[in-house]
Amino acid sequence: MNYKLIFATITFFTVTAQSYSQDLLTPGEAVALALQHNFHIQTEKNNAAVAGINNSAGNAGMLPVVQATVNGSLSLSSNDTKSAPAKSPVVEYSNDTGTVFNPEVTLTWTLFDGMRMFAEKSRLKRLQDISSLNYRDTLQTVAAHTITAYYDIVSAQQQLAGIEKAITLSEERVKIAEKQFEVGSASKVDFLQARLDLNQQKSSLLAEQDLIIQKKIALNLLLTRPPETAFATVDSIPVNYTPPQRGWADLQADNFEVIAGVKSVEVAELERKKALAQFLPTLDFSAGYALDNQQYTAGSTLLDKTWGWSAGLALSVPLFNGFNTVHALSIADLNVSNSRIALDNTRLRIRSAWFQAQSDFEKALEALKLEEENIGVADENVKIALERFRLAESTSIEMRTAEVSYVDAITRLVTARFNAKAAETELLRIQCELVK
Predict the structure, then answer these.
(1) What is the DSSP code (8-state) at residue 243?
(2) CB 384 within 8 A of CB 401
(3) What are phi and psi of 337, to 5 degrees?
(4) Dihedral (C-alpha) 27, 30, 34, 37: value to the nearest 10 degrees?
(5) DSSP label at 236?
(6) 280, 114 Cβ separation under 8 angstroms
(7) Which residues contact 43 (CB under 8 A, 6 or more apart)?
(8) What is the chain's alpha carbon radius of gyration, rounded to the nearest angstrom?
(9) Where do the domains of the chain lie, and which CATH numbers do they carry?
(10) Closest CA to 141 of 46, 217, 35, 47
């Protein structure tokens, strides 16, 4: 699979076209940056590349091994030698030297090892598949975290806008209370309380501004950017009320964790095949070409040179190794059992998370619809309360109660929108539909 195409394929966003400043970071751009630069993704991508390199015929032991060796020596001496055989003339040597040169090229090839090499090649292929699945799952996870972090900022900015509107109401309340105090229609206590409430709102504004900075730093970390990188976001949180519906059979066929679990069972079964192969004989083929060249300046033999090809087969049959092969097979059987148990656990965990994500999303949508209705009621209520307070038909306490109710309604609405988006994101992550 060409994973470079993933960076350009985001199936999650529908952003309304608006005019923004040049430093606007859209949700799609944020995800694309994370998929390209996130450290976790880069690490998993390298791990997948390593697994691909390891998946080779040579690493599985299917190819021959060829090596060349050269053994040579040169000896120099200044010794004098005198030999006097009984029936031969005396022979004397002086300053004799000798050279020995033995190059050799050998080839060794395992022709049969109980099918172990084929099991190992299949095991390496499964490990490569698992590494690729881990990489793709990391893409989904990072994309989900990026989306959630992005809209967490949008949610905080919406909360900030709500606080600013509440400050506007509080400032208007202060002006009215001040005029009422000046004309003697209200006590100074109402005026002072209005000032206190206004200052409290301004304090909340500062805290929310600092919170937005913290959330932007967190998103920049996900995008592998300097923490001080400034950017603007969209001002709305789109929620898909009808996300793709999947059946459990389809979901587990596409979920990366479940597929990786199936591959892990296959790896354990192939390890068992390798253990069984130890009961079977091994057949090796070997061939070589050697040269043995020895030269001397004195002695009975001045040149001794041998060269040529050699080839042969070697069959080894395992008879007894202290029951180690039997023990290895027993351990392999247990590992197969454990991998199947782990797969069952993964399936149940993913199914539970999927069921919970569906429930969370449904409840989040219900809460969002309810809060969207409440905000209209709260907005109308605070407007009426403000007008009544301006006409001195209500008390400062009633006005303050309406303000608090309005701010609370804004907070609940913003929270409900973010929760709905987060639940939608988690549902799509489990269904592996965030990044295609």
Answers:
(1) P
(2) no
(3) -60, -45
(4) 160
(5) -
(6) yes
(7) none
(8) 40
(9) 3-37+113-280+322-430 (1.20.1600.10)
(10) 35
CA nearest neighbour of 118 among 46, 44, 39, 60: 60
3-class secondary-structure state, position 87: coil
If you write DSSP's letter for every residue of 90-108 in order, what string do you get?
A: -EEEES-EEEEEEEEEEEE
Residue 75 contacts by C-beta under 8 Å, 6 or more apart in sequence? 97, 98, 99, 100
Pair 22, 106: CB distance under 8 Å: no
Query: 323: how many CB neighbours lie within 10 A of its CB?
Result: 9
* Amino acid code (one letter) for 373: E
Return d(Cα 425, Cα 436) in angstroms, integer: 14
What stretches in the chain show pLDDT beneath 50?
Answer: 1-22, 74-79
73-127 residue pLDDT tens:
544 444 455 556 666 665 555 555 667 677 888 889 999 998 999 999 999 999 9
* Per-residue model confidence as pLDDT tens digits over 40-65: 999 999 999 999 999 999 999 899 88
Label residue 289 exposed, middle or buried (CB < 10 Å: 0-12, 13-18, 19+): middle
Distance between CA atoms of 172 and 381, rounded to whole angstroms? 16
β-bridge pairing 65-76 and 97-112: antiparallel
Say what the pTM is: 0.81
CA separation, residue 353 to residues 54, 263, 419, 426 (Å): 34, 21, 16, 9
Closest residue by Cα to residue 67 from 285, 282, 283, 289 = 289
pLDDT of res. 35: 94
Q: Residue type at 335? A: N
Triad 100, 103, 107: Cα angle to 5°: 155
Q: Which residue type is seen at 24?
A: L
The greatest distance separating any two alpha carbons of the chain, rounded to the nearest whole angstrom, comes to 153
Separation CA 34–CA 44 (nearest Å): 14
The dihedral over CA atoms of 330, 336, 340, 342, expressed in degrees to the nearest 10, equals 90
Distance of CA 179 to the CA centre of its chain: 62
* 382 touches 166 (CB < 8 A): no
